[in-house]
Design a protein that fits this description.
This protein has 261 residues and is of the alpha/beta class. It contains seven helices and seven strands, in the order βαβαβαβαβαβααβ. A seven-stranded parallel sheet has the order 3-2-1-4-5-6-7, sandwiched between helices. Helix 2 links the parallel strand 2 and strand 3. Helix 1 packs across helix 7 and helix 3 packs parallel to helix 4. The longest helix is centred in the middle third of the chain and has 27 residues. It starts with 5 loop residues before the first strand and ends with a strand.
Length: 261
């Protein structure tokens, strides 16, 4: 019998991350679901929304034995390494990593952005992706099926265009796409792939925070520029991410799958 594939997902406790965990399990994967669980009192300067809590992460555990949860901050390579080790200890392999942990901050022009805010965005949104790849990719390449391994970073529409009063966030997400493209080049010849998925306006707490920054009562107004002319649901985005993680997603190496058009 074919062994089930094993995935590690960061930012897994809610929103697109939680939906991705469920989509991968529905595709037959085993998943280590990772989140920092910083909650409302996260103490991160300039971050304008409450982050996930332990309760959010615990709810994933009710989805079945295919999920094991792990608390770790993507700024901490040792914590991520422990999560990858958990996958190996529990299921003997690691085939997929989805770097979904991120924060959003802004609401002012670039020249008024604080150093603390920019440092937080860089540490979580960029170096967090780097740390996830640094920990996960060696396990993938050493595993039983390197050619079927997939690294997916959740970027943003901000990774391909500038967003008003979100220059720091825009710069961070552009860096994520550059990171993925460089990683994809490094993976040539291994069969493993790296892809970025840019969700666009999706019904999440992060979108609610963006709407507050812009003084909008209805977050759905942020979808006016999307060709779908509606908010996307986390499960819809997760289905695309799951495809990128699949064997069929191998042709996408180095691609940016932009859902925010």
């Amino acid at each position: 019998m074919t062994q089930p594939r094993v995935a590690l997902v960061t930012g897994a406790a809610r929103g697109i991350g939680a939906a991705t965990v469920r989509a991968l399990v529905d595709d037959g994967c085993r998943v280590v679901a990772v989140d920092a669980c910083l909650g409302a009192d996260h103490g991160l300067p300039g971050v304008d929304h409450a982050l996930a809590t332990h309760d959010d992460l615990d709810r994933l555990g009710s989805y079945g034995d295919a999920i094991v949860t792990h608390v770790a901050d993507v700024r901490d390579p040792a914590g991520l390494s422990a999560a990858a080790d958990l996958a190996i200890e529990r299921w003997g392999r690691l085939d997929v990593a989805v770097a979904g942990a991120a924060v959003m901050a802004g609401g002012r022009p670039a020249w008024e952005t604080t150093a603390a805010e920019l440092k937080t965005l860089w540490a979580i949104d960029v170096l967090g992706v780097w740390n996830t790849a640094f920990v996960a990719v060696p396990h993938m390449l050493a595993g039983p099926d390197p050619a079927g391994c997939r690294f997916v970073a959740i970027a943003s529409a901000a990774g391909s265009r500038g967003l008003f009063h979100l220059t720091g966030y825009t710069a961070a997400k552009h860096a994520v796409i550059g990171l993925v493209r460089g990683l994809a080049a490094d993976l040539v010849g291994t069969g493993a792939t790296a892809v970025a998925v840019s969700p666009g306006a999706t019904r999440t707490a992060m979108l609610d925070a963006t709407a507050r920054l812009y003084g909008l009562e209805d977050p759905a107004e942020l979808a006016d520029d999307q060709l779908t002319r509606r908010l996307h649901e986390p499960a819809e985005v997760a289905a695309t991410i799951a495809h990128c993680c699949s064997a069929a997603g191998g042709l996408l190496n180095g691609s940016v799958v932009d859902l925010g058009n």
